[in-house]
Amino acid sequence: FTGIGLSEAKARETLRNGALSALLRRAVLQARSTLGPALDKATGTLLYNTAARLKDPKHLGFLVGYIARREILTDLQLSAALEYVRSHPLEPLDVADFERACGVGVCITPEQIEEAVEAVISKHRAELLAERYHFNMGLLMGEARNQLRWADGKTIKNEVDLQVLHLLGPKTEADLEKKPKVAKARLAPAEKQKVAVVENGDMGAETQSLLEQLRGEALKFHKPGENYKTEGYVVTPNTMALLKQHLAITGGQVRTRFPPEPNGILHIGHAKAINFNFGYAKANGGVCFLRYDDTNPEKEEEKYFTAIREMVEWLGYQPYAVTHASDYFDQLYTWALELIRRGQAYICHQKVEEIKGHNPPPSPWRDRPVEESLLLFEDMRKGKFGEGEATLRMKLVMEDGKMDPVAYRVKFTPHHRTGDKWCIYPTYDYTHCLCDSIEHITHSLCTKEFQARRSSYFWLCNALDVYCPVQWEYGRLNLLYTVVSKRKIIRLVETGAVRDWDDPRLFTLTALRRRGFPPEAINNFCARVGVTVAQATMEPHLLEACAREVLNEQAPRAMAVLEPLKVTITNFPAPKALEILVPNFPADESRGFHKVPFHQTVYIEETDFREEADKGYKRLAPGQPVGLRHTGYIITVQNVIKDVSGRVIELEVTCTKSDVAEKPKAFIHWVSVPLACEVRLYERLFLHKNPEDPVEVPGGFLSDLSPDSLHVVHNALVDSSVHSARPFDKFQFERLGYFSVDPDSEQGKMVFNRTVTLKEDPGKA
């Protein structure tokens, strides 16, 4: 290896990579058979780059032959050659087309280079004379290279330098000075994409929106129809013909799918999957299917189908089509028969317990005759086997070592769509890739735990000679202080710890909607997490921060009092209630006003009054007046009325116009002629960050429930401006937080859920 120009350190590093060193040795021996024992460094570098960058070793001899015959002389040519063989996976290669694509036999003369550089300099002559050596010379190089693709870059650079010197003369002192930086125009706030990166729970620098990130991901993913360029993709003699048919059907359109199981409610982790699948399609001009993976009739309910679609649309996405795995049951069954006929599947009678885990005993029925398996599969379909007595298994070993995954099992449960037509149902491992194939999905995006199934995905499509999409994996999104598994949420509901799947203390999407989280906040949160391959585990306060940003712009202001204290204004300036105009958004009064009554009797928060004002206390106290927000009046305590236990139950005050009184230390919110309402204040459901961790919570997640996760205020008061609000309408109650109207609201008794406080609690960060 040092004999072809590698340094000793590089040679030793290469030897540590067994596969690379074997390829390089083959390449060197082949080149020596043509060129003799001594190879120059340029040839050695080409050989090394070929061995290191070649994806499919079967083309090694073909490429080394061109290097040894001096027909590939530059790294530029080699890069074109490597790309060509990657893009043309089927043998035999079209030699003439290959040579055209790699510039074989193309001879660029010094005269051609001189003419090309002369033309480029002539084009930019005026700018060159004006900017002199501060001009971007790389632009000249690039344009000359575009005209003469196979020309040597060093020769072009020397020619550019020579002709520029001839035009401008030697550099002067002014030319040697650094070019002053031009200040970039600052974007107006409205033009900025305020999306931050979150790494390990911290807010980082500003970054791109999710759509921009997903457009970036498109550079890493294959283009539609170029599936074979993906590492690990298996190419068969029929691959290129199938891809050609695929492109004829899709027109080269990106196609993704979101494939939830309809046996539970979507949670915050699904929000990332929805954003990724629908967002990737949208960012690249494609479409996304909503496909229900309804292959397990025992656990599926209509309410889950409805709720899943509702949540997808609530997040702002419209499926291109709504499909079901059960739409394809007939085709899947036909393909299962074909798989048996091809000797790739068999009927097995091992029990479920026997084939669980990673090292189960091999099936004694693996080599049973094809005809026997076909008859037994038909018996399975006719219901002649009980549940667990027979399965159809595929003959393959998965990436995680699991052998012969199950394709079909017996279940005597009517299906919600197909009724009792079937008593055998396909598994995820069998169904998923074939449904993707039927729908001509281009990018099958799934979470990282499915990476072990990628090889079986490719295997099954190829075993049946059908179009094979590409599976790409990304990292899951998890939240601390919660559980999201269906089984655990059902236990929470059954034990009465929460009311249902939409209890606002959960992080299901229906629960987040009920609590008042705007869909934009959830999408922004997914953007901040980013398009990561690694699993992301985030703090809930980061999601809450996204909600505050959106609600601050969306939620009109209102006033509410949670613990009312009656205040009578003894010198009220009018015989009846006044109407006060309150801005919906104080920072932008152009967004309108609402009216609230201001009467002789108002209610303030109990906590906004103290009989004795401590140092630093700025609100109402005897001898310490406060302003009533939006009224233009200041009130001063004249009399404190208490009940028999000594509790303050009413204040008598006088009011003064604020423009003639001394400015008070504080302004407080209030209500007058209010509506009675119930307010539900939520905190974290669990005490520990990881309630499912047996080390952190030895007693199990049900032992970790917080006793303070819900506080209901039954007799709160809210100003009458909200009287016509409907469920899920959102408000900022001044000084209290953001609140959403709960569906439990009735005529005469509204119910509000607190979404988030106005500011983050430092204790939660």
From TrEMBL:
Residue stretches making up the Glutaminyl-tRNA synthetase class Ib non-specific RNA-binding domain: 1-153, 156-244
Annotated Glutamyl/glutaminyl-tRNA synthetase class Ib catalytic domain residues: 253-552
One Pfam family linked to the record: tRNA-synt_1c_C
Domain annotation Glutamyl/glutaminyl-tRNA synthetase class Ib anti-codon binding: ranges: 555-655
Catalytic activity: tRNA(Gln) + L-glutamine + ATP = L-glutaminyl-tRNA(Gln) + AMP + diphosphate
GO biological process terms on file: glutaminyl-tRNA aminoacylation
Protein family (similarity comment): Belongs to the class-I aminoacyl-tRNA synthetase family.
Subunit structure: Monomer. Part of a multisubunit complex that groups tRNA ligases for Arg (RARS1), Asp (DARS1), Gln (QARS1), Ile (IARS1), Leu (LARS1), Lys (KARS1), Met (MARS1) the bifunctional ligase for Glu and Pro (EPRS1) and the auxiliary subunits AIMP1/p43, AIMP2/p38 and EEF1E1/p18. Interacts with RARS1. Part of a complex composed of RARS1, QARS1 and AIMP1.
Protein name: Glutamine--tRNA ligase
Organism (species): Aegithalos caudatus
Organism taxonomic ancestry: Eukaryota, Metazoa, Chordata, Craniata, Vertebrata
Gene, per the UniProt record: Qars
